[in-house]
Amino acid sequence: MADIDKLRITIDCDECIGDGLCVDAAPETFALNEDSKAYVLEGSTDSREYILDAAEQCPLDIIAVVDKETGKKLYPPQD
To answer: With helix as H, strand as E and coil as C, how does 22-66 read?
Structure first.
């Protein structure tokens, strides 16, 4: 099972500024649409580490990553 299948990734597209840092960090997981808004690609082969790094790179912290099995929020960190 690929790492992407173990994670639930959400993006607040309304807040996305389209800087593409997530795409640079995990190009098999994230892309920008025609409106320069990030979205999640299907069938990613990026590692969990790359996916979390991409979420951390977002200057607005609008990418959330949750472990599907445990329900634990991996990014942004819980207080």
So the answer is: HHHHCCCCEEECCCCCEEECCCCCCCHHHHHHHHHHCCCCCEEEE
Answer whether 15's CB lies under 8 Å from 62's CB: yes
Does this model's pTM top 0.70? My answer is yes
Residue 76 located in a structural domain? no
CATH code assigned at 54: 3.30.70.20
Question: Is 43 part of any domain?
Answer: yes
For 29, half-sphere exposure in the C-beta direction (CA atoms, 13 angstrom radius) is: 27
pLDDT tens digit sequence for 55-78: 999 999 999 999 999 999 999 987
Q: Which residues partner with 8 through β-bridges?
A: 66
Respond yes or no on whether the N-terminal peptide bond of residue 77 is cis (omega within 30° of 0). Answer: no
